[in-house]
Structures are given as structure tokens and as C-alpha cells.
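2024-03-11 09:14:02 INFO queue: dequeued item Oxidoreductase, Gfo/Idh/MocA family, len=367
2024-03-11 09:14:02 INFO validating residues
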Amino acid sequence: MPKSAVNRMSRLVDFPPAPPRYPQESALRPVRVGVIGCGYWGPKLVRNFSRASGCEVAGVADHNPAQLSRVGEDFPNIPGTTDYRALLEDPDIEAIAVATPVSTHFTIARDALLAGKHVLVEKPIATSVREAEILVELAEKTGRKLMVDHTYLFTGAVEKMRELVHSGELGEVLYFDSTRINLGLFQHDVNVIWDLAPHDLSILLHVLDKKPVAVSALGTAHAGTRMENLAYITLTFDDNTLAHFHVNWLAPRKVRQIIIGGEKKMLVFDDMESNEKIKVYDKGITVEQGDREAVYQSMFHYRVGDMCSPRLDPTEALLKECCYFADCVRNDETPFNNGEAGLEVVRILEAATHSMSHAGTLVAFAN
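2024-03-11 09:14:37 INFO prediction written
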């Protein structure tokens, strides 16, 4: 990195000293990572890449010198620059993590891919389907890894949800119901759908492992803003599964909850719970088969069984994701949360936004 672009820095109170590396010290060559963006999420990436075995943070960038200084106070040995291109020009940096405002994701990720860097970009991958498609095409053309930072997919809770669904313990999935609401933060460059919904859309696609056929959405803007701060999204699937999402920046309390209803059992994921985040209920209905006359009578039997809360992997999700990204780079493996996965989320976001602007019109996805 050019010395003129480097700004040495010194120790931050927001972050405790990094504990031993995870999963363990490694003799493998380190993947040298540059982190672009030192606002809210960037410092978390710096901390976790610094802890991840087989990784080394080789530089950070932010256009705001004050943000650089904050990170530098806790990581004095990592050089920083106000020009992210300095990281792209550094031949010793092979991967870039992008943690900047959504409106800048495309430009920075594109520049990084063109510079021959592997890229981890914060969600959503871009602000339009076309931009996301270009990034996917660039990654393919340059032979670089493109991974989207859908951190929730690496939590013990979501890993367990996927396991329970794919093992058949819940039976056929009937519905997926998600609520992600809180007071703020109002964004200036995206509406509430683009800000909050990517988390739960990525969970839905990863856990159910199938794509919707249509979407509809309703939303509104309050407080004199042009960005919708409240929205309801509904996804339909060709097998009669229904998914519903409630996202809101204007709620009196913070709620992070997903309910998956299955034929055999039902699951509740409450991310605000400190201990029992996943609860599996042996509850449901049984419908007796009878003659035509009996169908019109009450033939439903309600099953109420036990509730269990399975043990979850407590490892920090972002740390696992940083290790996984480095492994994919080092071993030339395609990540499951790759550019195509990020593109699918953006495809839903864009269609939902179109539906919302047309009073909830149903928008079908092309096959």
C-alpha cells in the first residue's frame, strides 16, 4: 500500500482485546484481507478476521479519518487509508470485505473484483437485480469468490432450523412467518424492506432451500420521509407453502421472531431470548378421513405434546463466517452464500418494492 495513503493508528475502548484465534492456530498460509468501511459493521469484521485462524487484516479504509482513528485505537498495527483504492492496488491483499452504505456496494465490489480480489460484501449485495447480475458475472469471469454477508446463516439457531427442516422432523413445511421490528434506525438510502428483510429472506431461502413463485407487498412512509418505514411482504410457493414478513422501523419494542409451521411439529425462533432461542413444539392437527357428510362436521383433532429447546452452537456467527470465507478462498470452494444467493434475495426485494409501489399487486417471478 502506498505510504502516502497509509495512516498508522492506535487502541479503542469499544472492542476488548481479541481472544485466541478460532477455531485454532493454523499453519496454513493466512488469507490477507482488506476491510472497506469502518462505521458500524466494519470494526466487527476487523475484530473477527483478526481472530479467525488463517486470516490477517492487512488494511482498512474509510473516507472519514475519524472512523479510521476509532478502529486504529484498538488495532494499532493495521494500516488505514481514506482511499479504498489503495487496498485494491496492494498486491499482498487478496480479499476485500465491503461494509459501506448499501448504495455503494455495487461500485466497490465491482472495483474489487476487477482488481482481482475475492469479495465479501455486506447485505444486500446491490440495489438492483441488474447490478447483482453484473457482480455475479464478474466473479465468474475473473474466477474470484463473491460471498454475501448474510451473517444469520452462520448462527447456531439458523443452522439448527435448517437441520430440523431437512431431517423431516417438522414434516412438510406449511408456512414461514417472520417479524423483525424495532424503533429506528431510519435509513437515508434504502427503505425498511431493503434494510431489514434481507436477513429473513436469506434465512427462508437457506432453511427451506426452495424459491418462491410470486410476491406481494404493502408499505407506507411516516414522519415526512419518502422511504417506507413499515411493510408487510408475502411470498407464495408452488407447493402451497406461504411465507410472510413484517418489517418496521416504528415499533415500541424490538422483536426478532420466526415461526415455522410443519405438518408434524412447529418451531419458534426468538432471537431476543438469551438462552432458549429455538423451541420445537409437538403441536398440530389431525384430520380424520370420513364420508362426504362427515367432512362438513368437526373432524379436526388438536395435538398438544411436549416442547423442547435444542442445544445450539454458541460460536459467534460472524467469526464462523469469516473463517468460512477464508477457507473458500484458500481451498477454491464455492460458498453457499455466494453471489447467486445474494442475487436471489435482491430479486425478491426488487419485486416486493415494485408490488408495494402498485398497491400490493402480485408480482410473479420468471422461471
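2024-03-11 09:14:37 INFO annotate: DSSP finds ten helices and 15 strands in the chain.
2024-03-11 09:14:38 INFO item closed
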